[in-house]
Specification:
This protein has 109 residues and is mainly alpha-helical. It is built from 5 helices and 3 strands; from the N terminus they run ααβααββα. Helices cover 54% and strands 12% of the residues. It is elongated and about 50 Å long. This is MarR family transcriptional regulator.
Length: 109
């Protein structure tokens, strides 16, 4: 956990911002999520999630886009900078997980 926090902080974001970016991209066949979906996945209140989205938006990581189908709904999407940041963080985490590859060999599971 501490290593993941160090990786995230080195990129200039918080662990919660990283989780929000991950969950924004976690829906099949789309590249956005609603605040309600993000709140559910983060196990946070809608109010707290709105505040987190606002902080991510101020950092240039996400943007809010009104839904074309339901004007009451707002879609949270990664910005190009958010995409780049998420890819760098995912690559750093992948490298770290692969370092423990020996622990996941079939004979050890």
């Amino acid at each position: 956990m501490r290593l993941s926090e160090a990786i995230v902080h080195a990129e200039g974001v918080t662990p919660l911002q990283y989780m929000l970016m991950l969950h924004t991209r976690a829906f099949p066949d789309r590249d956005w999520a609603t605040v309600g979906e993000l709140a559910e996945r983060l196990q946070a209140s809608s109010h707290g999630t709105v505040a987190l989205v606002t902080r991510c938006e101020a950092a240039g990581l996400v943007s809010r886009v009104p839904s074309a189908h339901d004007r009451r709904q707002v879609q949270v999407q990664l910005t190009p900078e958010g995409e780049r940041c998420l890819k760098r963080l995912a690559a750093a985490h992948k490298t770290e997980v692969q370092a423990f590859g020996w622990a996941f060999r079939e004979e050890r599971i």
